[in-house]
TrEMBL record:
Bias (Gly residues): 182-193
Originating species: Cereibacter azotoformans
Protein name from the UniProt record: Sensor histidine kinase
Segments for region (Disordered): 172-193
Keyword Transferase on entry: no
């Protein structure tokens, strides 16, 4: 089993975006099919048409908020295709019936466009921040490598300087000469006055 911090990075690029879009559309289609089957099996055809808020709203909103513009519009289109339109009531004008039937799908489409565009801007901003973060990490890694190389070169230069110089500590010869003179002036040396 691979540790969590060594997990491979998620795929990026157009192919990964297409897979994500396909996954979002499949999820939306599965939810819409589940809602349609639930309506048919439990409540009977046309039950959702009588509700104040159609349950397909949930799928359209989820797709737009989760995936952005394209999954939101795709979910709205799938919801429009799967919508069970109620029959025209007796005495209602056909034009009025079509306008009333088209109102809910147009609301889904407009909502998925508005929320999807806003979410798409957020997704693009997050992608830009991830790319900038990766670039800055790469720059930091390069700087750390250069610092390590410079530190090693400095250590090698110091070592060469120490090995080449018989007097490794600057001023050590001066201290030895000063100590010799002090000892000579105290009368303990052989060369005293």
């Amino acid at each position: 089993m691979q540790p969590l911090h060594l997990a491979p990075a998620p795929l990026r690029g157009p192919a990964a975006e297409m897979r994500l879009l396909a996954r979002n559309l499949i999820e939306s289609a599965a939810l819409l099919i589940a809602l349609t089957v639930t309506e048919r099996l439990l409540f009977g055809p046309g039950f959702y048409a009588g509700l104040v808020q159609h349950p397909f709203w949930i799928v359209v909103l989820l797709a737009a908020v989760q995936g952005g513009l394209y999954p939101g519009v795709g979910a709205a289109a799938l919801a429009i295709l799967m919508l069970d339109q109620p029959p025209r009531p007796v005495g209602m004008d056909i034009t009025q019936h079509y306008i009333q039937s088209a109102l809910l799908p147009m609301q889904w489409l407009a909502t998925s466009l508005c929320i999807g565009l806003y979410r798409q801007l957020q997704i693009e901003r997050e992608r830009h921040l991830r790319e900038e973060n990766a670039r800055l990490r790469e720059t930091a890694d390069l700087l750390a490598e250069e610092l390590t190389r410079t530190d090693a070169a400095l250590g090698a230069a110091e070592l060469r300087l120490i090995v080449a110089d018989p007097e490794p500590v600057p001023g050590a010869g001066l201290a030895a000469r000063t100590g010799a003179r002090t000892g000579a002036g105290s009368g303990t040396g052989k060369d005293g006055p």
